[in-house]
Amino acid sequence: MKKLIITGAANGIGRATLEQAIVDGYFVIAVDKDVDALNTLQQTYSASVLETQVADLSSDAVIKGFIPSLYERHATIYGLINNAGLYHGKSIYAYSDKEVDEMLNVNLKALVYLSKDFAEREMKHEAPRSIVNITSVAGEVGSCDALYGATKAAVIGLTKANAWNFAPFVRVNAVSPALIHDTAIYDTIPEYRRAEYARQEILKDPILPSGVAEVILLLVGEGFRHMTGKVIPVDNGAYPR
């Protein structure tokens, strides 16, 4: 049974990806700071398919030590899905210094350390492995939340660079969602921005977390074994680019 790490696994896209991954036959290592939600997941799924890890990815110590500690118990892991992220939906002028640091750590720095530490350990096996990063349309066309948009743009750059860094054994791709319904972020996006996203969509079936999860798992799997360094939009055709 192949093992997948999924960060931000307790809710939204992360939870939908976890649920689909288990259906697809993966063993999931679910990472989140939401203790109650992780406990609910652990009560829902057996230990034969799910391991939960409480981790606050805004902490430097946590993001630098997480993968090394995980490999004390796991000899090898097939894939890493970097899904955890923050969005505040406010002007850069309204950010505190603490919020700036938190956003940079969760949305970018965590991906740097988790990805390199994972790849370093898995490349020695000289076998196919996969990383999928979750960016956003905001990283491509901008955001009213400048820090969110900046970090998501950086994730795109990191994805492309690490596709080179980790070749030929670890593929690195990204999924770029637009307006995703039934998530905590959806309720935080200002109404005028939600209206703009919806106006741009040429397909009108609302995008749900499960729809993004399906694309993530396609990318992580062997069916896309010839693809690396790519950004795949899940956006109902919005913002052609």
UniProtKB/TrEMBL annotation:
Keywords: Oxidoreductase. The keyword Ribonucleoprotein does not apply. It holds the Pfam family adh_short_C2. SUPFAM superfamilies: NAD(P)-binding Rossmann-fold domains. The keyword Oxidoreductase applies. Belongs to the short-chain dehydrogenases/reductases (SDR) family. This is SDR family oxidoreductase.
